[in-house]
């Protein structure tokens, strides 16, 4: 059975994209990451293995992955964009202290796009939702025992 990375690489090859070692590493890092890393975090994680790779290489590959539908760019306020290789319908909880992002699903919102379309006449292309709070690690620091 193929892994998510293998499926994604196959999709890129079918689109005529050459699979370089750096491209493979960036995609694998994103798909294995349980966090939602910034381009700089990806660069720092992979730089020891690819010392000639630049931050621009990471950004260019992320842009290509987004255009190929393999990755989503998450922008929240003025902070750096974060990247998510989980393209399924899901939402994000964001820690106001440390910036950690956690995924969650909410089946009750599955019909929000149809409702919005029927009530507004818009052709809805997607939606996103995020909730803000304090993660458990930061809360423990705030609330000493």
Task: Describe, in plain words, how this protein is organized in 3D.
This is Peroxide-responsive transcriptional repressor PerR. Keywords: Cytoplasm, DNA-binding, Iron, Manganese, Metal-binding, Repressor, Transcription, Transcription regulation, Zinc. The protein has helices at 4-14, 21-32, 39-46, 55-67, 112-120, 136-142; strands spanning 72-74, 82-84, 91-95, 101-104, 130-133. With 145 residues, the chain is of the alpha+beta class. The chain has a three-stranded mixed sheet, with no helix packed on it. A hairpin with a 7-residue loop joins strand 1 (72-74) and strand 2. The longest helix has 13 residues, at 55-67. The mean pLDDT is 89.
Using brief descriptors, characterize the structure shown.
alpha+beta, Arc Repressor Mutant, subunit A, Dna Ligase, domain 1, 2 domains, 3-stranded mixed sheet, two-stranded antiparallel sheet, 5 strands, 41% helix
